[in-house]
Amino acid sequence: MLQLTDVHVYYGHVHALRGVSLKIDDGKIVSLLGGNGAGKSTTLKMISRLVQPKSGSYQIDGKTMLKESPSRIVKRGIIHCPENRRVFPTFTVEENLKIGAYKRKDKKIKSDFEKVFSYFPRLKERLNQKAGTLSGGEQQMLAIGRSLMGDPNVLLLDEPSLGIAPNLVIEIFEIIKEINKDGTSVLLVEQNANVALAISDYGYVLENGHVALEGNSKNLKNNDEVRRLYLGG
Ligand code: ATP
């Protein structure tokens, strides 16, 4: 289990996280919802240790993670799939996937390639294509595939639906569900609350750097405030 308790993060004078507490139980999909600037991406960056909290605790299975470097966090299987995909545009699909496994030395790498292709057959068809020439949806598939090559226990997904054609959003979210069924926990940051709550077990709503609401996804979907603010009515 991954757990944050009362985490505060500052960027200079900007108090971006104001006491965030959340947990991701093993095997679950957890949504992190909220409007622009609520602190969603900062929460993911804090978990992957790209930003340092001023106070609070961060534990995985009861062990503190606050002294761990980002690369140690990756080795523990916490893999961050960043906002806007950030694929390496001049590298091929195959090279991008290999970069995802950069820290690994185990023998499962080859079978993980096949696994990525079973989730995303389009990537296999485009193995030698430069990533910058893929469509937005295909780049998102590649970014998730690259994260899977890091052998995640917990996948941190930042806005996988952003700027993607609606039919591909559905396809990608179906695959996120499959990835989870195969044993990977997921923390899903989304502005598209409809699709996020449809596939997640539990959800948190961030507002101004703190958790304003939390609950089972089903309950959140029926919550009047969530419906009004994030589900279009
Ligand atoms: P969005 O959906 O727009 O990406 P978000 O919920 O992910 O929003 P964050 O990106 O975490 O929000 O930003 C939280 C707050 O921290 C915002 O007020 C933002 O302006 C501020 N912030 C984020 N990154 C930095 C930075 N590098 N330097 C200064 N302030 C930052």
TrEMBL record:
CDD domains: ABC_TM1139_LivF_branched (cd03224). The keyword Kinase does not apply. It comes from the Bacteria. Pfam families: ABC_tran. Keywords: Amino-acid transport, ATP-binding, Nucleotide-binding, Transport. Residues 2-233 form the ABC transporter domain. This is ABC transporter ATP-binding protein. It comes from Niallia oryzisoli. The lineage of its organism: Bacteria, Bacillati, Bacillota, Bacilli, Bacillales.
